[in-house]
Every structure is written in C-alpha cells, then in structure tokens.
C-alpha cells in the first residue's frame, strides 16, 4: 500500500496503519512514486485530491495509468476539494476518504477492496458509468439499506444484485431471486409467503416461502412493478414488521433478510396511474441504482463480448478472437436487447465462425442485413421513365359484418403496430398500451393461436393480418 503525504492531518490519519498490519510506503514526489510503481506490485495507491503545486489527482491517475499501473486508487481529500474528488472518480478512482480519518475507516476501505477483487472476475466495468455504479454498489453493500435497481431489460440488474449480496456481510447466506412477472398471479402469494398443508386445494404438504428461505441472506424481487396491488400491501407489512405468516397459519416467523428490488418500469409513473403503492416504493427505494443501457456505455461492449466469448467457448476449443471489423460492428450496433442480446449474438457467432476468428458476418447483426437490403433495391428504377401504377381497390365484401371480429382485429393491429414501434420490446409495449406485461403475453399467445406468426409480421415477412382464418367464437 502506497500513499503521498499531504499535510499533518493526513500524517496523523495514517500513522496507525503499520500497527494494524498494513505495509505503508510513503513517497513525496510524482517521480519517486512512478519509480516505486515500476519496482513493485502495489495493492492500493492513496493520492491527495490536490497537490501543493495545483496538480489534481485526476491528472496523476492518467499519468500512472499510462505508465502501466492498473491497481486500485483511493483519493484522500478535505471538504473543500469536492470537485477534484469527482474528477478523480471519473478517471477511475475506486473511492475516497475525507481527512481526518481513523484506522477503522482505512480498514473498512481495504476490506471493500479485497471483496471487490474477489468478485471482479464476473464483473465487467470499463466505462465511467459502470465503474461509478459498482463503486456505489460496493459502498451500499456494507449496509442493510434496501436497494431499488432500475434499468432496461437485459442490462444486468440481477448481476448487480448478486454483486451487492456477494460484497455484503450476508455473502455466506442464501441469495434468492424471484421474478414477479413470471409467476401466475394465483401462485405468487404462496411462493412468496409459503403455505401450510391443506391451506388451499392442492397444498398436500407445508412449504416455506421465498421470504423465509432467504432468512440470513438476500431476497431479490425482480420485475417488482408486476406485483399485484393486493400483494404489494401484504409485502409492505412483512417488510415493516420483519415477520411473515404462511398461508393457512397464524404462526409468525421472524425474518432477517436484505431486500433488493429491480424493475424496468417507471415506478413513479406507475404510482401516478394507481398501479403501484407509494409507501412500498419509498420502502424499497432507500438507495437507488441505475443500470445504463449498453449503447450508453460503449467502452463495456468489447470487454463484455470477450468475457462472454470465454464463458461460452466449447471445452477444448482453441482461443477464439474477434477481427477488427467484427469489433467495429459490435461497437456500432445499438443493442436494443442490451447485454442479453449481446450474449445471444456471441453464442450465434461461435456456431457460425470458421477457425479461430469471429468475423463481421459471423455476428449476423440485424443492421448488417438491413444495410444489405438497402444496397440491393427490389426493382431498379429508370431515370428516364416515370410510370404511374394504378391502385387496385378490393371488391366490396358481401359477407355479413362481424362487430366482435372487427374489434379483435383492431386490437391485434394496435398491438402489432406498438410492438413494431418498440422493436418487439414487450415491457415497453405493455407500458405504452396501459396493460401489464402478463396481459400482453396472454394477448400475443391468443394471436398465435389464431394462426398469426408474430415474428414474421414484425420482421415484415408477413405484413398482413388474415381475418378469414380467425376464430372468435
């Protein structure tokens, strides 16, 4: 561990370091610091926010990175240097300490550093947004505060939740995740709270709920915005009283759990529309975190792709690499499906690749196909000939009008148009239509049962609805 002394208060703050097992090496100048960085491998570099000559920690971090130091950096600062600390954090500093501080603060910081290094193998954070997000997650993990994680589908909300659990004092306890949108409404209460034998038809034995199973650990409530209002009330009571009753029982079971929640919805808008309880929102939203979309953190795309490539590489296969053209294609794509879509593309590319290189065409990105279609017009136009093609009006229908069928067709057409507008994104479509994701899934399934190929319609292979095949009886 290495640091640069700034003043007497800093010297006093660090004077107890060696007595508690830290090997602290002091250096006075940037030149001496660079020499020591080149000679040894250091676990942590402590930098003052602002040197006596006016040099900021952010500039020092750039200098040290250029000379090959890739370890953790912590900024030591007094209150008047808030702006300098912010700029240092943007350059990749892990954390900061306010002067004066005690040896316990330094000890806690080192503990967070060790835990972060243990979990970094599964975490990719190269962009400023990702680094800052995981820095905040590391800090809140040491507390018992409830965390609400917001972000688009596929941005890694569950990965962040596991990181918080693994970095917390509850890491040895269970991590239980429940997707509130994937469980039928009739079953979610039993799955959350548990039930006794005979509590309802089919309850042939007692069953502990997810809240009870998570005792001593962390419970993730994914897609919390899909939880029915009646269940929201019961969940709020459980979180307030820290005890739960199984269905069919009056025995209270004490709970010792950390609650994390995740959503891709705007819960404040859901509160305004009466679809989410404000008191539950404020209970869960003690510490908000946001997972940025992949297109907003370009620096993460290639590291994530390489990490996913290693994860899905067939056992015994030689090391496969991306060509420069493939990397450029990955970086130029918008990724509406975020990291989940990137993982699908990498798996597909591994199947399509020949040899140990993944080429641009192996990725089969939708934008590439679209560009190819644009380059090849269906009907070549003649610059000297202009022909007006008459439109053919279909003959008037002689069948008896069916009001129910017309309404259903109009509903289907609205769903298709909205899905197209959001590139097939189910949650955004449901929000726009004012229905739950579960209700939208049911309507899409109904359309499939009527013979509609949703995927072909969305990609333009089958643009028309065929009402003659529908059965609305």
From TrEMBL:
Gene3D superfamilies: 1.10.8.60, 3.40.50.2300, Homeodomain-like (1.10.10.60), P-loop containing nucleotide triphosphate hydrolases (3.40.50.300). One of its GO terms (biological process) is regulation of DNA-templated transcription. Residues 123-351 form the Sigma-54 factor interaction domain. Keywords: ATP-binding, DNA-binding, Nucleotide-binding, Transcription, Transcription regulation. Residues 376-405 are annotated as: Disordered. The keyword ATP-binding applies. Residues 1-114 form the Response regulatory domain. SMART domains: AAA. The keyword ATP-binding applies. It comes from the Bacteria. GO terms for molecular function: ATP binding; sequence-specific DNA binding. PANTHER family: TRANSCRIPTIONAL REGULATORY PROTEIN, TRANSCRIPTIONAL REGULATORY PROTEIN FLGR. This is AAA family ATPase. The lineage of its organism: Bacteria, Pseudomonadati, Pseudomonadota, Gammaproteobacteria, Vibrionales.
């Amino acid at each position: 561990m290495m640091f640069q002394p700034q003043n007497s208060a800093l010297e006093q703050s660090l004077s107890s370091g060696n007595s508690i097992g830290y090997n602290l090496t002091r250096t006075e100048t940037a030149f001496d610091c660079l020499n020591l960085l080149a000679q040894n491998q250091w676990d942590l570099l402590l930098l003052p926010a602002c040197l006596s000559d006016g040099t900021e920690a952010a500039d020092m971090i750039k200098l040290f990175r250029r000379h090959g130091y890739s370890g953790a950096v912590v900024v030591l600062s007094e209150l008047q240097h808030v702006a300098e600390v912010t700029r240092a954090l943007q350059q990749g500093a892990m954390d900061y300490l306010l002067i004066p501080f005690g040896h316990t603060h330094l000890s806690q910081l080192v503990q967070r550093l060790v835990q972060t290094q243990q979990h970094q193998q599964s975490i990719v954070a190269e962009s400023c947004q990702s680094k800052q997000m995981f820095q905040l997650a590391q800090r809140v993990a040491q507390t018992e505060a409830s965390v609400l994680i917001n972000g688009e589908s596929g941005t890694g909300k569950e990965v962040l939740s596991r990181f918080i659990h693994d970095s917390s004092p509850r890491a040895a306890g269970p991590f239980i995740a429940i997707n509130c949108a994937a469980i039928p409404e009739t079953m979610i209460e039993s799955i959350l709270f548990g039930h006794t034998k005979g509590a309802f038809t089919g309850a042939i034995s007692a069953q502990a709920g997810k809240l009870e199973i998570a005792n001593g650990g962390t419970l993730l409530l994914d897609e919390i915005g899909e939880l029915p209002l009646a269940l929201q009330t019961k969940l709020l009571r459980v979180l307030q009283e820290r005890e739960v009753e199984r269905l069919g029982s009056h025995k209270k079971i004490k709970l010792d759990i950390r609650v994390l929640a995740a959503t891709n919805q705007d819960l404040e808008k859901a509160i305004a529309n009466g679809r989410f309880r404000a008191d539950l929102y404020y209970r869960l939203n003690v510490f908000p975190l946001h997972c940025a979309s992949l297109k907003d953190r370009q620096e993460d795309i290639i590291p994530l792709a390489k990490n996913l490539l290693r994860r899905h590489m067939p056992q015994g296969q030689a090391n496969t690499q991306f060509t420069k053209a493939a990397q450029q294609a990955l970086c130029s794509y918008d990724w509406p499906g975020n990291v989940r879509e990137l993982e699908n593309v990498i798996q597909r590319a591994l199947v399509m690749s020949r040899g140990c290189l993944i080429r641009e065409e192996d990725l089969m990105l939708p934008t590439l196909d679209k560009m190819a279609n644009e380059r090849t017009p269906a009907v070549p136009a003649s610059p000297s000939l202009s022909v007006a093609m008459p439109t053919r009006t279909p003959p008037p229908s002689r069948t008896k009008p069916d009001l129910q069928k017309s309404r259903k067709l109009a509903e289907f057409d609205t769903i298709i148009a909205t899905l197209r507008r959001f590139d097939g994104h189910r949650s955004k479509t449901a929000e726009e239509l004012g229905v739950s994701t579960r209700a939208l899934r049911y309507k899409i399934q109904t359309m499939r049962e009527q013979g509609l190929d949703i995927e072909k319609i969305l990609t333009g292979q089958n643009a028309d609805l065929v009402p003659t095949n529908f059965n609305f009886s």
